[in-house]
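Dear colleagues,

For the upcoming journal club I promised to circulate an example of a predicted protein-ligand complex. I picked one with zinc ion because it came up in last month's discussion. The inputs are reproduced below in full, followed by the predicted structure.
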Amino acid sequence: MTHRLTGCCHCGAIGLELSLPRPPEAETVGACQCSFCRKHNARTVSDPRGTARLTVHEPAQLQRYRFGLAASEVVLCRRCGVYVAMLMVEDGRAWTTINIDALDERARFTRPAEPRDFSGEALGGRRERRKARWTPTELVGWPEEGG
Ligand SMILES: [Zn+2]
């Protein structure tokens, strides 16, 4: 059974859909220890057996931010400041890990967040790990690299 969740940034410029193979109560919750996620105290979810869709309703409000090895980028709303997801794009395909608190049903993710520290990882290994663990994602209405 697929569990379909929706969400968006605070002002609605960036919409979010996530389909998970397990109910949110059973999903693993991550607490990435990267410096960006810690400043947001973010809890994230990804499931390689699920699917996600990020829809940009107002392209002018899409802010993409890279840091560190720049293997992925943060998706933020320029207007309301909400951190929506971490995104990796490669060969026209996209994967994300979603900021749980941008989802409408954030309260259903009741498992304790597991700290994850990937800071010692090399770039190649990082991209392969994300492809294996992050959620395949469709990008709709993106100004570039859309799909
Ligand atoms: Zn917004």
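Two points we might discuss: Residues 3-140 form a domain with the Metal Binding Protein, Guanine Nucleotide Exchange Factor; Chain A fold (CATH 2.170.150.70). The chain has one domain: 3-140.

See you all on Thursday,
B. R.
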